[in-house]
Amino acid sequence: MELLIGQTLSGLANGAIYACIALALVMIYKTIDHLNIAQGEMAMISTFFAWQLMEWGVPYWPAFFLTIFVAFCGGVAIDRVLFRPLAKAPVLTHLAGFVALFMILNSVAGLVWDFTIKPFPYPFGTSPFLGSSLISTHQAAMIGISMVLLFLLYLFFQFTRIGLAMRAAATLPESARLVGIRTGRMVSLGWGMASAIGAVAGMLIAPVVFLEPNMMAGILLYGFAAAVLGGLSSPAGAVAGGLLVGVFENLVGTFVPGVGHEIKLPLALALIIAVLALKPNGLFGRKITQRV
C-alpha cells in the first residue's frame, strides 16, 4: 500500500508538469486551430535562459520570474514574426513552420550551450516532504506551483475582461471582431501565456530530467497524450488529462511486469491512439458542429 501511495503521489507530481504542457498546447490550439509541436523546445530554451542567468550570479527566484517574463515576450514575438503571416495559409504550411521552429530552437540551444547534460538546481531541496518518505519537497512543490498556476489561469479566464475577450476571440473570432475585440492581440496574448506556462514547466522538471537540448521530447509527448485524453477544446480537460497520464505511467511502470522506463513512453503514444479511436473529442472535449 505504501508503494502504491508513493507511486501515485510521484505520478501526480509528474502529471502536474504534463498538465502545464497540455494546457499550453490547448491554448495555442484554441487560438489558431493547430498543435504546436515546438512547445517543448520553447520550454527548453526558456529553461536554458534561466540556467544562464543563475550561472551569471542571479539568484534562483529572480531568474525564475525574469525567465517567465522573457518567455512571455518570446511567445508574442513568435506569433507576430512567424505565425501571423501564416494566418490564412494551408495546414501543411503551419506544420512546416512548427517543424522549422522546433529545429531552430533545438539547434540554437545546442550551439550556444552544447549538448552536454547540465544539473539544474532544486529550489525546494530533495528532503522528504513533512517528514514523509512518500514524496519529496520538490515533488510536492511541483504539484503545488502547478495547481496554483492553473487556478490563477482559471480566475483570469472566468473573471477578467481580457480573459473573457480571449475566450471570445478563440471561440467566435468573427463575432468578437464585430464587438470591438482585437483578435490579433488576443492570439498574441495566448501565445505569450502558453510560452510562459511552458517555461514554468521546464524549470520545475529540469532538476528531475537534467538540462539538455532534448530534455522536453518525452515531456511533450506526455503533454500531447494529456491534451488528447482530456480534450483539445477543454483547458480543464488538459489539466485532468495531465494528472491522469502521470499517475497512469507511474503505476503501469511499477506494477505491470515487463514494463520499464523504455516502455512507458510508447504507452503514452498508445494512449493517444486509443483515445483518438474510441473518443476523438477526449474525455472532456465537446463535439464541434457546424451549421450549413
Protein topology:
Blueprint: H1 2-32, H2 39-55, H3 60-83, H4 91-113, E1 128-129, E2 132-136, H5 137-159, H6 161-171, H7 173-178, H8 183-209, H9 217-230, H10 235-255, H11 261-278
Antiparallel strand pairs: 1-2
Helix pairs in contact: 1-5, 1-8, 1-9, 1-10, 2-3, 2-4, 2-8, 3-8, 5-6, 5-8, 6-8, 9-10, 9-11, 10-11
Structure description:
With 292 residues, the protein is mainly α. It has one domain (2-278): ABC transporter involved in vitamin B12 uptake, BtuC (Orthogonal Bundle). 74% of the residues lie in helices and 2% in strands. The chain is built from 11 helices and 2 strands; from the N terminus they run ααααββααααααα. The chain has a two-stranded antiparallel sheet with strand order 1-2. Helix 5 (137-159) packs across helix 6 (161-171) and helix 9 (217-230) packs parallel to helix 11. The longest helix has 31 residues, at 2-32. The protein is globular. The mean pLDDT is 85. One of its GO terms (cellular component) is plasma membrane. It comes from Pseudooceanicola batsensis (strain ATCC BAA-863 / DSM 15984 / KCTC 12145 / HTCC2597). The chain crosses the membrane at residues 12-29, 60-83, 95-115, 135-157, 187-209, 265-284.
